Amino acid sequence: MTVVDGVGVDTAAVDATISAMERGDAVIVQGGSSPGGKMEWTRRRLAAFNSELFYEERPRSRAGLEKQEIRSTSRVSGAGLRYLPVEHAGNQNCAKEEAEAVRLLVSEILDTGRTWIDREGVQRPIELDDILIVAPYNAQVFEVQELIPGAHVGTVDKFQGQEAPIVIYSMTTSSHSDAPRGMEFLYSANRLNVATSRAKCVCVIVASPRLFEAECRTPRQMQLANAFCRYVEMAIELPPL
Prior knowledge:
alpha/beta, Rossmann fold
């Protein structure tokens, strides 16, 4: 069970619906407004990212999940969705700029006072093993591995069924027109869903801002881009280091 800002997401249900998303059968739904104060609104909107955009159901709150959070003086703290924009151009399946940004972010997390509080309220230090780094292409995986030896880095297939307090997803490609396998692969709902649902506390997307300016010419392309644009809308943008 994974939490996004205090509300649980069933990762077993995530795995069971991945094939449907890849076929395009899953429905992407715009979430409506929710009652209550600002904090409740924020929690519901963040937690609803998986349940409302990928499934036709609302997330269910579970006792204790609201306790899970990252306590740190770094840019990564609290719980929920984060977005780190990194400017670059002409990159297809490898982005040194993003790999370096990920390295700096991981170093910042590990070098500052940081702890993770689990669903039982137990507090412990965050180690490198508590961070999963996802990339769409093997070339980017190798680039990050070179910069962060010993880190858990891989494509989506490697991390299905796994969870971690922090997940970092490096999207790598500079723009939709640079995508070597087209929008269907780069904007895969499967990959985005795995990345966000595997994070127990915080998910960080590291990406070129131009990826969220895709020119969509078909309803399918609009569906693919919508999930990523929705993520950025819900996420807290992190400042550059």
